[in-house]
């Protein structure tokens, strides 16, 4: 029994780390750091990113490794061989980077993106350890848990590939949104594993079953609408050179109003679900998480709407929304 508890604790750690990855990704998007590393999986051709601008500029009499990047004449180049540079730039030593030409360097954006990649890398090691533990613990008894654990690796591999595509396509907004939604899917699989290992009896209640299902679907729709609004914000902010924040909301189309109205409907459903859960001890903890998340999400949403979208609030809003949808999914698994 103790080994199962340790396994559950490790799976919860995996779930928590997933939310760290989601938060890190949101910070990258909010700070416009997605192209801080213009190549993938390296950063300017290095395992560890540069810390000063001169490192990505051409230097005379300097040893360059094959694949190392520089910015030259507002263009992104990489060394086509290992060589020592002469006194002047020699075009024969360099190749134009074709996947994108994001020829800018900002040390803060570079390191924010790099830290984001590190969190995803740590997640990969956690999932590998989880698969090994699942195989040792359930490989001969409850193979479905092993299969769910294996699916984590497949989804994470796809997520990493999608991250590469996001960089290669210079942050196309639709691909960024898919990147985030797949992170939520990975979190849902972790919740399924926890539910299967615990094998706790479900609460029988037709009303709770339908109420939790409807609430989950409404919040899911709300998150999709939120991603549509976020994509518009990305385009508007870029058009305004990330200035004049007081104009951003006024330039949103009708999807913003739909997003706002559905948010209130989702909040009301979550509060009612919490109220209906109080008589059931097995549901109370998850219900309290749902209530706390919806309260925080609504508060942060109001701050975003009336305080000109403060940059620091955006990642927290996404994080609480992510925890909310996953908590609702966990709640739904406990009811039949």
From TrEMBL:
UniProt KW keywords: Cell membrane, Disulfide bond, Heme biosynthesis, Iron, Membrane, Metal-binding, Oxidoreductase, Transmembrane, Transmembrane helix
GO MF annotation: an example: oxidoreductase activity
Transmembrane segments: 7-28, 114-133, 145-167, 173-195, 207-225, 258-275, 287-309, 315-333
Residues in coiled coil: none
InterPro entries in the record: COX15/CtaA_fam, COX15/CtaA_HemeA_synthase
Subcellular location as annotated: Membrane
Pathway note: Porphyrin-containing compound metabolism
GO biological process assignments: heme A biosynthetic process
Listed GO CC annotations: membrane
Membrane topology: Multi-pass membrane protein
Domain of life: Bacteria
Protein name: Heme A synthase
